[in-house]
Specification:
single chain; seven-stranded mixed β-sheet; five-stranded mixed β-sheet; alpha/beta
Length: 382
């Protein structure tokens, strides 16, 4: 849907044909198998593991939002999508990943190292020279990027990194979950693959678990489609229909949550009980200049370190009444957690870091809840 604003694409793409008496929204089709006789022509629906009409509208809409030439491919989870893309790394291959990233992504990379002899090289993706040097140090199978990173919110110079990787024949995959297609379009910056945890912002209501892969290249599309079919990493039709319904309001939710996040980050940076705040909207944030140049929004995730250490951070979480303590993000509700409560989180993430996923509630209510929690838990004079 060229020439239309992303907000319009989110609402209009993937609609049924305009047939008098037909539905405005695509229906959910609950069938595991389809009528078929003779030699099936290419594209004929046969069995729901290889394709179902309920996936098509969502896959078309996400592709349009990412500006992709091929339909998106929906997967049963974000990790299923990540596993499909990391299948590009052969046994004994070399994988360059951010030192800070979704912890299960890093866990999967570690598993590849153990069972397939893959060399996993961790880099600070905000340090462009260091990433380029790592990619060029030895033959590399894949450069995996997140920007902003989870949970440290480091911002990568995606065009520079993609150009450097491609100059030595290295494909680039970008997890675009935090930014969403409204914040950046990695394919337009030259990336080969975009991955989403659809569970988060795209679906947006904390009620489905899905993933997606988006590419421009037809051969890559065919490869990931075959992977999904052979591995059975497929999504249920009802979940995909819910994700499409959520996608219709993506622009509204992102606009509100980003505005809330920027305002809360500004206020938190001035709060005496706060040791550090990370959000790219803040002028002194390390990622501010790069995000301002490369992105069309600063995102809805805040990194917060209350004064007093990990114990105080846990107390802040317990004291909140409106914010929901939960491990996921990107829903309409505001959630938070201390990331290092997981033993698998990167050791370079501060013990006291709280990851805040800002929702669409009234910002004054969110602020009042945060202030009350900070004031009641952070020792005076800390």
């Amino acid at each position: 849907m060229t020439g239309l604003a992303p907000a319009t694409v989110a609402v209009a793409s993937g609609r049924p044909s305009r047939t008098p008496g037909g539905p405005v929204n695509p229906p959910v089709v609950l069938s595991s198998t389809y009528v078929s006789t003779g030699t099936p022509p290419p594209g004929e629906l046969l069995y729901a593991r290889s394709g179902t009409e309920t996936w098509v509208p969502f896959e078309r809409a996400l592709a349009d939002l990412e500006g992709a030439a091929q339909p998106a491919l929906v997967f049963s989870s974000g990790m299923a999508a990540i596993a499909a893309v990391m299948s590009l790394v052969p046994a004994a291959g070399r994988l360059v990943v951010p030192r800070h990233a979704y912890q299960v992504t890093l866990g999967f990379a570690a598993d590849l190292a153990t069972r397939a002899g893959v060399e996993v090289v961790k880099v600070d993706i905000a340090d462009t020279d260091a990433v380029v040097a790592a990619v060029r140090a030895a033959p590399t199978s894949l450069l995996w990027l997140e920007s902003p990173t989870n949970p440290m919110l480091e911002v990568a110079d995606l065009p520079a990194l993609v150009e450097a990787a491609h100059s030595v024949g290295v494909p680039v995959a970008v997890d675009n979950t935090f930014a969403t297609p409204l914040g950046q379009r990695p394919l337009g910056l030259g990336a080969d693959v975009v991955v989403h945890s659809v569970t988060k912002y795209l679906a947006g209501h904390s009620d489905v678990v899905l993933g997606a892969v988006v590419v421009d290249d037809a051969a890559l599309h065919a490869r990931f489609l075959a992977y999904r079919t052979l591995h059975g990493a497929i999504a249920g039709p009802w979940e995909v229909w819910l994700a499409l319904r959520g996608l219709r309001t993506l622009h509204l939710r992102v606009e509100r949550s980003q505005a809330n996040a920027a305002e809360l980050a500004r206020r938190l940076a001035e709060h005496p009980a706060v040791l550090e705040v990370r959000h790219p909207s803040l002028p002194d944030d390390p990622g501010h200049e790069r995000a301002s140049t490369l992105m069309t929004g600063y995102g809805s995730i805040i990194g917060l370190r209350p004064a007093g250490g990990a114990g105080v951070a846990d107390a802040v979480v317990d004291a909140l009444r409106l914010w929901v303590p939960a491990t996921s993000l990107g829903g309409v509700e505001s959630t938070l957690e201390r990331r290092r409560r997981f033993a698998t989180e990167s050791e370079t993430v501060p013990e006291d870091l709280l990851r805040l996923s800002v929702g669409v509630e009234d910002v004054e209510d969110l602020w009042a809840d945060l202030c009350a929690a900070l004031d009641s838990t952070v020792p005076s004079g800390v």
